[in-house]
Amino acid sequence: MLQKPEGSDSTQRAANFSETYRRAYRWMLLARVAEDKIRSLFLGGKVTGGVFLGKGQEAISVATGMALRDGDIFAPLIRDQAGRFAFGESVVDFTMTYIGSRSGPMRGRDGNIHRGRPREGMLPMISHLGAMVSVVNGVLMAHRFQGRRNTVGATSLGDGATSTGAFHEGLNQAAVEKLPLVLVVTNNQYAYSTPTDRQFACADLVEKAVGYGVDGHSVDGTDLTSCLKVIGGAVERARNGFGPQMVVATSLRLSGHGEHDDGHYVLPDLKDSALGRDCLQVSHSHLLKEGWADQETLDSWKRDSISQVDEAVAHAMREPLPDPAREDWCAIASRHLAEGNV
Amino acid sequence: MITYLEAIREAQAHALAADPRVYLYGQDIATFGGAFKATKNLAQAYPGRVLDSPISEDAIVGSAIGAAIEGMRPIVEMQFADFSTVAFNQIVNQAATLHWRTGVPCPIIVRLPSGGTPGSGPFHSQSLEAIYAHYPGLIIVTPATVEDAYSMLLESITIEDPVIFCEHKYLYYHLKAESLPSEALPIGKARVARQGRDATVVTYSAMLHECLAAAEELAAEGWELEVVDLRSIKPIDTDTVLASVARTGRVLAVGEAWPWGGVTAEILARVASEGFNLLDAPPMRLNSKDTPVPFHPNLWGTHRPTAQTIAAAARTLLNK
Ligand SMILES: Cc1ncc(C[n+]2csc(CCOP(=O)(O)OP(=O)(O)O)c2C)c(N)n1
Ligand SMILES: [Mg+2]
């Protein structure tokens, strides 16, 4: 189930920025701890299938998740654990999907990052990059038909996904329909092993916004303060009727593409550059420097994250695994039309 | 008199009137009324609920999926079935998997103006039902009559799964009925369109009419063909087919689509594996030729099965 995080938009605005920052940091930390745990389970052979981490992109993702509120739509992608938690995903949904528990949201039918709860506003990504953009558009069109005002739909994409036809069709459609879509593009310098110069030829991806007739925003994805302000601001603009917003965040992928990949092709110069900063460490230092949290508090947050994750892993391990004999091998909802029943 | 195309328009008008969740989305379908006029005057009658889309088949279907998740009942029009290949990913990977993955159904209708007409050529003539039927999670319907075009479209709106509605362009204008039906066979049931005792011809969509003409031709020679109209491709009503083959002992499956795999192959596979002992002769199938659909009528008329080639195939079958 999605847990509705405390702090709706209005309370968030009222609370001072340091409180927002602290909350964001805690979701980022929880995501990092959870993903580190899944990684070690994967290396220990306890997780089948792929493991894809959001390491280095937690600030971007959390800013997206936190800017959304009840009734909004989020279609997260592979590097969005922090945003998923901030939007309300429970840690057990995360662990149960990786482990494949029958009682998890995907019931062993789909795994890892391919999860969601569409009835609760979190769309379950399919692998095909770019494909979620128009689905979010459709949700927003439905809201318009139904007279549901002031909702926003956000989705994430990588630099590589901006080369798909689906990205183009989706963003153009949102622009034509003037939908409150927020597209958060993270340029983490690679799409799997492909560097950006083999992906696109414009100087900066944010230039694409002009071509679609939508607002474009740039942000340093390693800096939580900027992410909260820029992505939060884009969400507000979408909510206030300014149409689709495209945010381009820059960062560096701090892991392999997935945990099967050592990322040996990532250039050392990039790792040493400002892009290579770890947003979690940057915000950790920022909290200390501003006096928004002391070391003792930070340590207790870490312990709390570890215990939440350990508990969620233990919970998932206790849950039954899918059972082919009990599985309902029927792909359609209208069972009377399943062959054999007609 | 009402045409096949008007029946499709009437079904959409009825759906818009009856169900506030229904909306229509596609290229040129609003004030223009659609490339074939299947939505003529509907934008005027239902303002805000018949929307022109950009030329973005992927996004048309993707957005329909999102709207369906939120409780709407979108009917989207592909201008031609051929262009649905651009939406293929959304149809087969997003719409078809959603319910199975999440338990949340995806009730969308994708209308595919399908099949060949003289002069349409390789990219405005395709019959793609088998490609979609290959994927789990989709319902594929292929109405062959005015009555079915109407009633199956209305029934499709009540189905909780994605429906690929293959309407045949060749039937749009010249196929006519006295009036709209008040009752109908449900989707999933095939119909014996003509009774006969000598051989079963299994077909669907526009080929039904070629098969009926072939049956007429053979009747003059003293043969009685039984013609089964499948009506839906997924699910296929194997029972009705087998029951007919049990009576006749012979089967010919006819389809306008390409020969490799596909609906006719599926029919023969089912008859052979589930009804082998019913057969008095090897089962036969007839499809279009294995080339793209040609433009010129001289070629097109030979590319697809016709009453004459179907009659010839039936004679071969009957003499085995
Ligand atoms: C349409 C499509 N083609 C190929 C893939 C395989 N694939 C998965 S992730 C990926 C790289 C994505 O790069 P990017 O969009 O930059 O996102 P990042 O992984 O950097 O977050 C590729 C090629 C896919 N999922 N979808
Ligand atoms: Mg990338």
What does this structure look like?
The complex is a heterodimer of chains A (342) and B (320). Chain A is α/β, with parallel strands linked by helices and 342 residues long. Chain A has one domain (52-320): Thiamin diphosphate (ThDP)-binding fold, Pyr/PP domains (Rossmann fold, 3-Layer(aba) Sandwich), CATH 3.40.50.970. Chain A has helices at residues 9-14, 17-43, 58-67, 81-87, 91-99, 131-145, 165-177, 207-212, 224-239, 268-272, 279-290, 295-318; strands at 73-75, 153-158, 181-187, 190-191, 194-195, 215-220, 245-250. In chain A, the strands form two sheets. In chain A, strands 1-2-3-7-6 form a five-stranded parallel beta sheet, with helices on both faces. A two-stranded antiparallel sheet of chain A has the order 4-5. Chain B is α/β, with parallel strands linked by helices and 320 residues long. Chain B folds into two domains: 2-177, Rossmann fold (3-Layer(aba) Sandwich), CATH 3.40.50; 191-318, Rossmann fold (3-Layer(aba) Sandwich), CATH 3.40.50.920. Chain B is built from eleven helices and 14 strands. Chain B has helices spanning 4-18, 42-45, 57-69, 88-102, 129-133, 146-158, 207-219, 238-248, 262-275, 297-303, 307-318; strands at 2-3, 22-26, 50-52, 73-77, 109-114, 139-141, 163-168, 176-177, 191-194, 199-203, 225-229, 232-234, 251-254, 284-286. The longest helix of chain B is centred in the first third of the chain and has 15 residues, at 4-18. The radius of gyration of chain B is 19 Å and the shape is globular. Thiamine diphosphate is lined by residues 78-79, 127-129, 158-161, 164, 188, 190-192, 253, 257 of chain A.
